[in-house]
Amino acid sequence: MKKNVHPEYKKTVIKCACGETIETRSTVQDLRIDLCSQCHPFFTGQQKFVDSAGMVEKFKKRYEAGMEKAKKIKDKEAK
Ligand SMILES: [Zn+2]
What we know:
- The structure is a single chain.
- The chain is α+β, with helices and mostly antiparallel strands.
- It has helices at 41-44, 55-78, and strands at 10-16, 21-26, 31-33.
- A hairpin with a 4-residue loop joins strand 1 (10-16) and strand 2.
- The longest helix has 24 residues, at 55-78.
- The model has no long low-confidence stretch (mean pLDDT 83).
- Zinc ion binds at residues 16, 18, 20, 35-36, 38-39.
């Protein structure tokens, strides 16, 4: 093998948000993931929201704000 052209392929640990750790080999060290085979709904058979970026919360806020606005418009029209 040529020197300095091959990235180092070292032992590493992948850490999941659920606490699961997987030992593997990679050129990247200390990987962090949100889902693994231990906690993904497909493997657990349970329904759960995969909401790592807070998208559900964001949607709820936007939805509530929209409802408030619609209510105000309705109130105005009623007058
Ligand atoms: Zn996991």
